[in-house]
Amino acid sequence: MTQPRWQPAGPFWDQVQQLQSELNHLFQRWTGPNTGRGDEGGSFPPVNLWEDADSVTVEAELPGLTSNDIEIYVTGGSQLTLKGERKPDAAAGAVWHRQERGFGTFVRTLSLPFDVDADKVDARCENGVLRVRLPKHAAARPRKINVQGQ
């Protein structure tokens, strides 16, 4: 017998998520968007996120990374985490004259607008662009209700 998965609900959970969002914005203000370390407080990698009838798609710019450099997690049904590392290209002993592209480890967590079916997530990385398609969980999809009459 499988146990039903616990789903947090109610105003308390909404307040916890709002607090998490506000703390993320606060820390991003302190670290700034261009620290050059590659862990810019949630702003790397830059992402686009859009929804259609059946899924949400996240597209992230990850120049120089391959699929082996990236880890993707779906947690809590509606949290997407992108994790990885960008390594510097300069040879050992080289002298830097300009360093605008950051490197190092990064973690970016996004709150999705609905629960997704984590077993059906499709992720592809081509030409430095990661595209993750996250199908809506059955409970999050709209259902047509038939109206009965006389």
Topology:
Elements: H1 11-31, E1 47-51, E2 55-61, E3 70-75, E4 79-86, E5 104-111, E6 122-126, E7 129-135
Antiparallel strand pairs: 1-2, 2-7, 3-4, 4-5, 6-7
Structure description:
This protein has a domain at about 35-85 and about 105-140: Immunoglobulin-like, CATH 2.60.40.790. The protein has one helix and seven strands. The protein has a four-stranded antiparallel β-sheet, with no helix packed on it. The chain has a three-stranded antiparallel β-sheet with strand order 3-4-5, with no helix packed on it. By secondary structure, the protein is of the alpha+beta class. Strand 1 and strand 2 (about 55-60) form a beta hairpin. About 15% of the residues lie in helices and about 30% in strands.
Defining traits:
elongated; four-stranded antiparallel sheet; 1 helix; about 150 residues; three-stranded antiparallel sheet; Immunoglobulin-like
